[in-house]
Amino acid sequence: MSEGVENNQELERRLRSVLGAVDPGEGFAPRVMARVAAGAADTARPARAGAVASWLAFGLAASVVLAFLLAHEWQARRLEQGREARRQLIEALRVTDEKLDLAYRAVNTREGGAPPEHSGV
C-alpha cells in the first residue's frame, strides 16, 4: 500500500509542477464579470424569442382550429337552410295540389254536364 501512496504523491507533485499557478493579470475579475453579464443578456433574448415563437405557434394552431369550426358551422347552417327550403317547397307543392284538385273538381262537376259557352269545346 505504501507504494500506491508514494505513486499518488509523486503524481500529485508532478501535476503541481506542470500546472503551477499562473497570475491572470490585472483586470481579470472585471473581464469575467463583463462576460457573465453579456452571457446573461444573450440567454435572455433566446428565451424570450422562444416564448414568442411558442405563443405564435399556439396562436396559429388556435386560428386553424377556429377556422375549421367556423367552416363546419357555416356548412351546418347551409344544410339547415336547404332542409328548410325543401320543407317549404314540399308544403307549397301540397297546397298547389289541393288547389288544382279543387279547381279540377269544380270544372268537372258542373251541373248539366254542358261545357260553358266560351270554353272552346
Model description:
The protein is 81% helix and 0% strand. It is mainly α and 121 residues long. The longest helix has 81 residues, at 28-108. The protein is rod-shaped, with a radius of gyration of 49 Å. The model has no long low-confidence stretch (mean pLDDT 84).
The chain-level structural class is mainly alpha
Strand portion: under 5%
Oligomer: single chain
Q: Helix fraction?
A: over 70%
Name the overall outline. Answer: rod-shaped
According to DSSP, the number of beta strands is 0
Main pleated-sheet profile = none
SSE order, one letter for each helix or strand? HH
Report low-confidence residues grouped into runs of 5 or more. none
Rg to the nearest angstrom? 49 Å
Count of discrete alpha- or pi-helical segments spanning 4 or more residues: 2
Q: What is the residue-averaged pLDDT?
A: 84
Distance between the termini: 140 Å
Top keywords for this entry?
121 residues, mainly alpha, 2 helices, 81% helix, rod-shaped
Can you describe this structure in just a few lines?
The protein is mostly helical and 121 residues long. It has helices spanning 2-18, 28-108. The chain is rod-shaped.
Sequence-ordered SSE layout with sheet pairings:
Blueprint: H1 2-18, H2 28-108
